[in-house]
Amino acid sequence: MKEAFDILSRSIADVRRNEPMSEHTSFQVGGPADVMVLPKTVEEVRIVLKTARYLDCPLFVMGRGTNLLVTSKGIRGIVMKLSDNFSGLTFDGNSVMAKSGTPLSVLVREAARRCLGGVEFLGGIPGTLGGAVYMNAGAYGGEIGDFVEEVFLTSAAGDLVLQKNEMDFGYRHSILAAVPLVVTGVRLKLIPCDEEESLKKVEELNARRREKQPLEYPSAGSTFKRPEGGYAGTLIEQTGLKGLRIGGAEVSTKHAGFVINRGGATPEELIALIEEVQTRVFQASGVWLEPEVKIVGER
Ligand SMILES: Cc1cc2nc3c(=O)[nH]c(=O)nc-3n(C[C@H](O)[C@H](O)[C@H](O)COP(=O)(O)OP(=O)(O)OC[C@H]3O[C@@H](n4cnc5c(N)ncnc54)[C@H](O)[C@@H]3O)c2cc1C
User: Whose CA is nearest to atom 19 of ligand 1?
Assistant: First the structure.
C-alpha cells in the first residue's frame, strides 16, 4: 500500500494512510482504510482510478458514508472519498450541474435560493449527490432519479455520460450497483418554486424526521429496504424486536426500522443484530429483509 500512497501523494494533496473509517461513517464505526484519497477535481479522480488499475489494487468509492457499515478490520486497498472536497453547483435556468460530492442539503438550500425546488424531500438525507444517485435515494414519496437528467461518470478507461433512462433507476437501485463507474457529476432538472415555501417544506419534513427517527444516535438511516407490500419497521415491531440489543447495537425503540449505535457498538455487533433481525422476522413472517445499508470491509 506504500506504493499507492506514494504515487497518489505526488499529484493529490489529501492522501492518508491507515485512516479510521469510524471518522467517515454516520454509524461512527469501522477500522482503517489502507489508503484514503480525497481528490478535488475530475482529473484527480482519473489519476486515482488509473493508479488503482496500474497497481491492481482494490478501490472503493464513497461519499459521506451515511449508508455504510464498515467492519473492524477496515477496507483493504484505496478508498476514494468524494464529499466536501468534491462539491459545487452550477445553475443554468431550471437545471443544475452538481459535483457528486455536494451534500444533498446544500443542493436543496441553494436551489431554493434560486426559486427552484421539487427536491425538498432530499433535504434531510445526510448523503452526497453521488451516493444518492447510486442508491436512488428517496423519501416521502420522492426519489432523486425523478429529477436526474444526466449522470457524468468516469472509469480508468475513460468518461461517459448516461441519460436518465439509461440509469435503470428503481427502488433504492441504479445501474451503478452493477457497473464499477464513479459518479463525478449529476445534472438535475428542478421545478420553479417560491423560496420561502420550499424552505418551509424542507423544515416540515425535517421536523417529521426528528419526531419519528432516532437522529440523536449514530446510524445509517433505514437499515433494511422496504419489503413488498409493507414496511420493515412494522414487521420488526410486530416480531417484538424493538429495543433488542447486542452489545452497543440496538433496534431503535423510537423507530424499529433503524439499527442504531447506542454508544461503543462494534461493527460486528451491528452486523450480528442485523442478521438476528433478519432471521427472527423471517421465522415470524416468512419475509427476508434485505439490508439497505452496505456492509463493506474485510470480514
Ligand atoms: C439519519 C439518516 C437518515 C437517512 N435517510 C434516508 C432517506 O430518507 N432516504 C434514503 O434514500 N436514504 C437515507 N439515508 C441513507 C443515506 O443517507 C443515503 O443512501 C445517501 O444517498 C448515501 O449517500 P452517501 O454520500 O453517504 O453515500 P455512501 O454511504 O458513502 O455510499 C453509498 C453507496 O454509494 C456509492 N457511492 C457513493 N458516492 C459515489 C460516487 N461518487 N460514485 C459512485 N458510487 C458512489 C458507494 O460506493 C456506496 O455503495 C439516511 C441515512 C441516515 C444516517
Answer: 67
